[in-house]
Every structure is written in structure tokens, then in C-alpha cells.
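so my prof wants the structure for this chain in the C-alpha cells format not the other one, which i didnt know existed until like an hour ago. anyway here's the sequence
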Amino acid sequence: NQCIESVLIPSSKYDRTTLCVSTQIGCDRGCAFCLTGKMGLVRNLTSSEIVAQVVLGKRIALARDMPPMTNIVFMGMGDAGRNTDAVGQAVDCLVDRQRMSMPQSKVTISTVGPSPEAFSVLAAMPGTLAWSLHSADNAVRKLLVPSTRHSTEELRDGLMRALRSRA
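here's what i got, hopefully its the right format
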């Protein structure tokens, strides 16, 4: 009796479909504008549950004659930075040539930035890293993401360290 959501975003202009996948049921970040945050965190999804969204998304896109599903964004329910073990396993599966064989450049892992250290874990994954900053102003960001415990500058510095560690 627990639900998540995945969103298919077809674009005939670019002849592709993007799938937005969830990493958690609910979320503990509490972003002011997000209904998922009002649920609180119910639980983390497993890597199999995350990959299953991709398999199902591909089937639905094909059955509904959408453009090919070529892009995956980890921007659904939950925060990828709060479920790094399962997200890392799922991303590895997506880009592995023996399994889903997606290009790393077509997988985007997004986080609100729960900590400066979380960026390092996510940056080690094969994909594009995105930070949902919401506001560069600390006071405004604290209103939008009340669970934040780090300043924008601390998070920015953590992101920059993580990006410098990439090949």
C-alpha cells in the first residue's frame, strides 16, 4: 500500500523521452513547495525498485508510441543524496553495457544537497550531477528547504570539491 511516482516527459522537438524516477517513498527534506516532503520519509527504495521504474517506463513509452526513452533523471520523490547506496547500484546497472547500457551523459543524479559530503558520494557515480539549489541566499534557501543544516557556501564548496575529484 505504498506508492511512488515516475514521470515520462516526451519531447517531439528533440525526439526523446525523459523519465523522472523516484528514490524514496516520501522525503525528509521538507521543501516548502513540495507535497512529497509533507509525507515525510516512509522508506528508501531499493536499487531494484529504482531500475524497475526504468524498465516499466521504457515499456510504457514504447506502447504509447512516445519518442525513444533516452534520458533518466533522479528527480522524483525523495532525494538521491539521502539514498546513495541504492542510487549508486541503480546507476551502475543503468550504465553497465551488459545490463541497461545507457550512456553516462544521459543519467542525471539530482540532490537538494543534504551535506557537503553527499556530493562526493554522488560525484563518484557515473552520470551527471545536479544540485537543486532553490536559492543562493541562505535565508531564502532555509525557508524553501527548512531541513538544510549547511550554508549555501558550505554546500557549494562541497560540490566543487566533488566535481574536482572527477576525471
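also thought this was worth mentioning. The beta strands are 7-11, 16-20, 24-26, 41-44, 69-74, 107-111, 128-131.
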